[in-house]
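Quick illustration for those who missed Monday's session on complexes.
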Amino acid sequence: MKKVVISTGGGDAPGLNAVIYAVVHACYRQGWEVYGSRSGYAGFLDIDEMVRLTPRDVQEIYAIGGTILGSTNKGSPFARPVENLAGEITLVDISDKIMKNYRRMGFDCHIAIGGDGSLEIAHRFSKLGMKVIGVPKTIDNDLMATDRTFGFDTAVSTATEALDKLHSTAKSHDRVMVVEVMGRDSGWIALYSGISGGADVILIPEIPFELESVCEKIADNELREKHYSIVVVAEGALAKGGEIISKGEGELGRQEVILGGIGEWVATEIRKLTDKDTRSLTLGHLQRGGSPTTFDRLLALRFGAAAVRLVEAGTFGHMVALDSSQMKAVPIEEAIKTRKKVDLTSDKISTARDIGICFGD
Ligand code: F6P
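Prediction with 6-O-phosphono-beta-D-fructofuranose bound:
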């Protein structure tokens, strides 16, 4: 009999609930107990935030977006912002408290579902003696050591559907529509949705762009009697010699700056340079919402079940990963070394170029 605790950390992604569903069911079949820690590690600090999960508690959640456990992308237990009596904020390491409670609560292991930030935290706990299995999540698809993370396919589908809808309005008004998508400093969502959604231009962080080149493509469209253009911009894209545009630090204890604003900047510049009617929109958190696609659901269920198999085998300190079409275990540190960038030699880039998409280079 084992006592397993599961947590979801970082930005939510469609498929989190499917992982929880699979873990709970697979553990139940082994006769093990599963607990869920709410909002990342809150359950290790407050018993009311630790919930028992049985198959009854997770009925049909595999099809629902978000996470029944809640999530957070601020306040790492290794650097948690705490206000002292003088009203000053200091960063405090509360990891020993979490380790103590993990042991006191009698857990055998922790299944941590997260992106690079949450898996890095899980890895640090693993070094402190916690038995950890990682499950890779993020709509950005920027984790190393796995072909895919769940959440990405749903985000790409949402962005593609939005692009499909924008064609008709752009065409009716002979406009340039600039669409900013998520992805942090990787261009996966922009690339996949841009190709599938008929973009004329795709701007990704991996290829710094020149506005002249973007405007040339728009002018070329005009020459070919196509009087509207769709430009997809990854939130982390940047002009050659320019800087990433962000909205600042965001909430206290947050690990990352909030990206955003490049789409509007590109639209303003295109308007100035081409005199075309240009509009911009940011898809934002729509890409994180809704029910997971079949692909993401299946991947998340497979990840959850594979994580429980790793618990059974005692393969701790590892993350489940998709390798070609197989599930495998990789050391967590492999996944968090660097962020996975779009491979510029991949056939997706050549496909885009072959069908006339401009990358602004
Ligand atoms: O990592 C997922 C992600 O959605 C990024 O694409 C985006 O930059 C970030 O999270 C947004 O974070 P938040 O939900 O805190 O605004």
